[in-house]
Amino acid sequence: MKTAGTSEQRGTFAFLENVAPNLFRHRENDSYWGIKKTNGKRTVHALGTTDRKTANGKLADWLGDLQKVDPSNRDMTLAQLLEKYEAARTEIARSTRVGEKGRTAKFRKLFPRPMDTLVARVLNSDIAMWVGLVGKGKRPSTRNQFRAFARALFDFAVSDTVIAKNPFDPKIIRKAKKEPIIRLIPSPKEFEQIIMEIRKPRWKMEGKHGGQRRAIQDESADFAEYLGRAGIGQAEAVALNWEDIDERRDVIHYRRKKTGRDFSTPIFPWLKPLLKRLRAKAGPNPRGPVFKVKNVKKALRGATQRLGLPNFTQR
């Protein structure tokens, strides 16, 4: 979309002849142009064809797009769009806001067009170039975050009647495929050794060097053992309450930390002895959290180091 005012546009306009309402043809190369005057301001748009029938269709589409745009927003620059977008995102979670702040800074610094460029002039190729630049050498998930930011930014421009269509084309700027996460898993024998080492270290190691305090060795071991025998994640185990354990139906109910969705798993035969011990420690009719310990990262690291095993994680 072009607005009259530059010498190039004035030169082009001199060769245009009106052939229908809002439709003009270039006298020398027969190309068709759309011209629309709104609030005293003339907007010129190259329709990109020399065929009259095609030009009629493209003109109708262009005029329809103009109706979706607030005339007062047509001169909005990228810098102004970013300011409005940031202001509209103040209520998001702090962790999300921190990441978005970094992506906004990279957009200002590395976007191939200057920040005083009109939003309406941005092309899909500009966005693709930026995503490729900031995503180079990054993990697929990080590149996809930049991709999602660009798409959301120009979606916001559409919803705010700055532009009629989002220049972001998902068919060209494709999501990067996530690399499979390969985690080390201990063998059954190694698992039992690790739990025993956390519960009863072979030598005294406390505080920063031992990774656990003597008073919570059993609790740390119970937590680590539960993760392994139940086959669930740390966050779900932390949120587990006694009320979630239905021993009558042999099922345990959890809530997925990342998605908030509920799910259940059976009480496996190899998990029952541990649950029996935990219930005996908790006393009759226990309620509330099953585990006081929330993290055994240090205890696990200390145990694996002392045993000469790989650094298995609690995830």
Account of the 3D structure:
The structure is a single chain. 20% of the residues are buried. A hairpin with a 5-residue loop joins strand 3 (23-26) and strand 4 (32-38). The chain has helices spanning 7-13, 52-67, 78-88, 94-110, 124-135, 140-159, 188-199, 207-210, 217-230, 234-238, 272-282, 297-307, and strands spanning 2-3, 16-20, 23-26, 32-38, 41-46, 245-246, 251-255, 262-266. The strands form 2 sheets. A 5-stranded antiparallel sheet has the order 1-5-4-3-2, with helices on both faces. It has a 3-stranded antiparallel sheet with strand order 6-7-8, with no helix packed on it. The chain is of the alpha+beta class. It has 3 domains: 2-67, Double Stranded RNA Binding Domain, CATH 3.30.160; 78-159, Orthogonal Bundle (DNA polymerase, domain 1); 188-307, Topoisomerase I, Chain A, domain 3 (Alpha-Beta Complex). Mean pLDDT is 86; it is low at 1-7.
* Broad structural category: alpha+beta
Low-confidence stretches: 1-7
From the 3D structure, determine the CATH topology of the largest domain. Answer: Topoisomerase I, Chain A, domain 3
Mean pLDDT: 86
Residues in helix, %: 40-55%
Task: Give a short summary of the structure.
The chain has helices at residues 7-13, 52-67, 78-88, 94-110, 124-135, 140-159, 188-199, 207-210, 217-230, 234-238, 272-282, 297-307; strands at residues 2-3, 16-20, 23-26, 32-38, 41-46, 245-246, 251-255, 262-266. The protein is an alpha+beta fold.
